């Protein structure tokens, strides 16, 4: 297949499609982006760069025989690629008022450049979310929401740096190692017009944690690679199981022994089994009777195995999983809950029969969605309705949670029929109306084959990172 998008071979193209990457050197990072998003077929290839790494980017462009502009672009006729680099400008000393000024400047800059950006070419924005003692500020998400009114949001990558933090230091607030950044990719195309529409975003409310008496945290890695154990024959029946190893990471951060843990969408019982193994009590609901029974049997087998060891200690933890719609949870169902961890349906993506993973499950005769019930969230067609229903479920569970307790929700952003739905960001914004947003973590997957989506025509990533969104229940609900 002819590559009409850039000069890369298929061997060079594929690694860039991975949605997260380890940062080796600044030069390699900038060079890979410029080479991927610039055709470079002749001396007319020109990019625009905004940022503090001007000398480095100019040197790379010179080596690649690419013209570069760093002013307002008045003398340019066209741009194949625009790179907005805010990594040094939006830092941990910045105030929110400073960010608002930068945002205004970037919006005005893109409006000026828009007529000269080639059709179906990309604008990349490099930016961090910032958390300090004064709160958590998801600037990347907020800026993306504004720029999405001007350009088509197409994708994202997560730049992961090697951690150098000291995790032996305890603090009163949940914090992460701050060693990642966002690469946000927008495109000028038939769905964009370069005009900024004023919008209201709620990312900067409810962003300051409460301290909890006698509760301390050790700083956790912002990103981690997890290689879970292979799924058993019963576990593989579920189309979207998440691993117990993932649950254990957050149990150790947010809970103590004998705490009550809940998952309102229990599936095959990953949350409950991990909780029991870590001496926590396990609770949950599951809409499917089939998966409810699998989850219950897994927990029973752990607490009272068919083949008991002579030296096995008696397990004192309890569990209860109800075959029930999470919307109907009441205080009569469970004791007060100390922590919620769950992974919801990623909208109706499991009903996309053409998806590669779905095709493989069909071939093996495995179930491809959670259920065919109308009240199953995974069967809702409308994105906003799905979001609102999901928020309603979480807030229903929050009603039986301890004030000041925590939630972790495992999600990822969604690409469907050529449109990018920032599910993680949208869910966070809606929940922030009720809960306190904490720094996110990323579960990075490194054991999945890369598919050549869009090769030779445009860029579409393989989504190999999952958001671990963290929230705190207010002290007064």
UniProtKB/TrEMBL annotation:
One of its GO terms (biological process) is methylation. This is DNA methylase N-4/N-6 domain-containing protein. Pfam families: N6_N4_Mtase (PF01555). Keywords: Methyltransferase, Transferase. Residues 105-296 form the DNA methylase N-4/N-6 domain. SUPFAM superfamilies: S-adenosyl-L-methionine-dependent methyltransferases. GO terms for molecular function: DNA binding; N-methyltransferase activity.
């Amino acid at each position: 297949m002819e590559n009409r998008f850039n000069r890369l071979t298929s061997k060079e193209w594929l690694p860039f499609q991975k949605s997260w990457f380890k940062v080796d050197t600044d030069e390699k990072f900038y060079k890979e982006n410029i080479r991927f998003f610039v055709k470079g077929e002749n001396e007319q290839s020109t990019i625009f760069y905004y940022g503090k790494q001007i000398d480095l980017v100019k040197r790379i462009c010179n080596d690649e025989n690419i013209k570069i502009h760093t002013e307002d672009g008045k003398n340019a006729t066209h741009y194949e690629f625009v790179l907005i680099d805010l990594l040094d400008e939006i830092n941990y000393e910045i105030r929110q008022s400073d960010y608002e000024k930068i945002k205004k400047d970037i919006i005005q800059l893109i409006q000026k450049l828009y007529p000269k950006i080639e059709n179906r070419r990309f604008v990349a924005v490099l930016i961090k979310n910032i958390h300090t003692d004064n709160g958590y500020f998801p600037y990347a998400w907020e800026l993306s929401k504004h720029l999405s009114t001007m350009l088509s949001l197409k994708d994202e990558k997560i730049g992961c740096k090697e951690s150098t933090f000291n995790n032996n230091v305890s603090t009163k607030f949940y914090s992460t190692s701050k060693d990642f950044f966002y690469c946000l990719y927008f495109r000028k195309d038939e769905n964009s017009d370069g005009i900024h529409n004023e919008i209201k975003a709620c990312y900067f409310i409810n962003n300051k944690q409460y301290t909890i008496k006698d509760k301390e945290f050790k700083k956790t890695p912002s990103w981690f690679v997890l290689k879970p154990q292979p799924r058993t024959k019963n576990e593989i029946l579920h189309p979207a199981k998440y691993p117990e190893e993932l649950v254990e990471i957050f149990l150790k951060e947010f809970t103590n022994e004998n705490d009550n843990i809940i998952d309102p969408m229990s599936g095959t019982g990953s949350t409950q089994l991990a909780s029991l193994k870590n001496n926590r009590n396990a609770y949950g609901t599951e809409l499917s009777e089939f998966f409810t029974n699998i989850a219950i049997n897994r927990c029973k087998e752990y607490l009272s195995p068919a083949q008991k060891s002579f030296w096995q200690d008696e397990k004192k933890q309890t569990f209860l999983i109800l075959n029930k719609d999470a919307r109907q949870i009441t205080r009569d169902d469970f004791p007060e809950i100390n922590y919620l961890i769950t992974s919801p349906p990623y909208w109706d993506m499991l009903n996309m029969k053409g998806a590669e993973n779905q095709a493989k499950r069909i071939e093996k005769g495995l179930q491809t969605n959670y259920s065919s019930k109308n009240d199953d969230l995974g069967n809702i067609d409308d994105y906003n309705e799905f979001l609102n229903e999901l928020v309603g479920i979480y807030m229903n569970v929050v009603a039986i949670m301890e004030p000041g307790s925590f939630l972790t929700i495992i999600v990822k952003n969604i690409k469907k029929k050529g449109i990018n739905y920032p599910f993680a960001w949208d869910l966070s914004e809606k929940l922030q109306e009720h809960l306190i947003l904490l720094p996110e973590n990323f579960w990075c997957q490194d054991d999945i084959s890369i598919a050549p989506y869009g090769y030779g025509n445009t860029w579409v990533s393989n989504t190999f990172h999952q958001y671990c969104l963290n929230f705190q229940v207010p002290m007064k609900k």
